[in-house]
Design a protein that fits this description.
Number of helices of chain B: 0
Radius of gyration of chain A: 13 Å
Structural class of chain B: mainly beta
Largest interface: A-B, 25 and 26 residues
Shape of chain B: globular
Shape of chain A: globular
Number of strands of chain A: 11
Largest sheet of chain A: 6 strands, mixed
Number of strands of chain B: 11
Structural class of chain A: mainly beta
Helix content of chain A: under 10%
Oligomer: heterodimer
Largest sheet of chain B: 7 strands, mixed
Order of helices and strands of chain A: EEEEEEEEEEE
């Protein structure tokens, strides 16, 4: 069974700090990796996608992928209180579905 | 460009009843996927429709069924509702089958179903 694991948190960081969110996955055939942000009571919003090993930067967000270690992470620089949300890691193996982790709750304190 | 829209936004049903949830895909998207998200958990894949045919199914019983129409909108039907069916139901559309050409999913606002 394909699994995606995340620490449920909460991860608490002060405003302006770097938040580091981690995700591991079990299926070595996984090809596409996504980070979604979900505010309480809302639907998930895609914030980053990454397909090859290394880093991908988009504004304050950096996604990191290491396929050998089956590990994907999301860094949020200059964290803001508005970044407080649950972050979902999702993995696709070229099949028809995304497998999601349980999410990490991030709290950014002013 | 209109995004994915779902209706209704909230629904309360009684155990044993049947429910139909609706989804309009984003313009130009021919693939619709449905996910169930229980409170405090990540979304779980129910099934996907591509050009009106079911194209993959997760670990959900047959009382979860669906349809896709020629305009690519979709319905999710759940029969014989159980208390554990209470969840946020998410619809997502894409321009290709998920996993083909790395097509990311963009979700609608979801339908919150409560079964009492």
């Amino acid at each position: 069974q394909k699994e995606v694991e995340q620490n449920s948190g909460p991860l608490s960081v002060p405003e302006g700090a770097i938040a580091s969110l981690n995700c591991t996955y079990s299926d070595r055939g996984s090809q596409s990796f996504f980070w979604y942000r979900q505010y309480s009571g809302k639907s998930p919003e895609l914030i980053m996608s990454i397909y090859s090993n290394g880093d991908k930067e988009d504004g304050r967000f950096t996604a990191q992928l290491n396929k050998a270690s089956q590990y994907v992470s999301l860094l949020i620089r200059d964290s803001q209180p508005s970044d407080s949300a649950t972050y979902l890691c999702a993995v696709n193996d070229a099949g028809n579905m995304l497998t999601f982790g349980g999410g990490t709750r991030l709290m950014v304190k002013p | 460009e209109t995004g994915v829209t779902q209706s209704p936004t909230h629904l309360i049903k009684t155990r044993g009843q049947q429910v139909t949830l609706r989804c309009s895909s984003q313009s130009g998207h021919n693939t619709v996927s449905w996910y169930q998200q229980a409170l405090g958990q990540g979304p779980q894949f129910i099934f996907q429709y591509y050009r009106e045919e079911e194209n993959g199914r997760g670990n959900f019983p047959p009382r979860f069924s669906g349809l896709q129409f020629p305009n690519y909108s979709s319905e999710l039907n759940v029969n014989a509702l159980e208390l554990d069916d209470s969840a946020l139901y998410l619809c997502a559309s894409s321009s290709q089958k998920v996993g083909t050409g790395n097509s990311p999913l963009h979700f609608g606002n979801g339908t919150r179903l409560t079964v009492t």
